[in-house]
Specification:
The protein is mainly alpha-helical and 74 residues long. 50% of the residues lie in helices and 0% in strands. The longest helix is centred in the C-terminal third of the chain and has 11 residues. The protein starts with 9 loop residues before the first helix and ends in a 12-residue tail after the last helix. The model has no long low-confidence stretch (mean pLDDT 94).
């Protein structure tokens, strides 16, 4: 079996943290990452995959690990 991205769990992690897409975008901007609310929505709806730098920034903001942002096949 090839390693692939599973379902994106960003929406769940963001809601657990109690922040909106706009707040996530603002906090990422403070880290120097320009990630729009449209892009966050695309991630959450599996229309776009996060690149490693954006994924790391999101983890810093949400206080989670990269492995917690997608369902990974076993």
């Amino acid at each position: 079996m090839a390693l692939t991205y599973g379902k994106c769990l960003l929406r769940y992690r963001r809601r657990e943290a109690g922040i909106t897409q706009a707040q996530l975008s603002d906090r990422l901007a403070r880290l120097g990452l320009e990630v729009s609310t449209v892009m966050i929505s695309q991630f959450e709806n599996d229309h776009r995959k996060m690149n490693p730098v954006v994924m790391r920034g999101i983890c810093i903001v949400l206080g989670c690990h990269e492995a917690n942002l997608y369902e990974w096949p076993r």
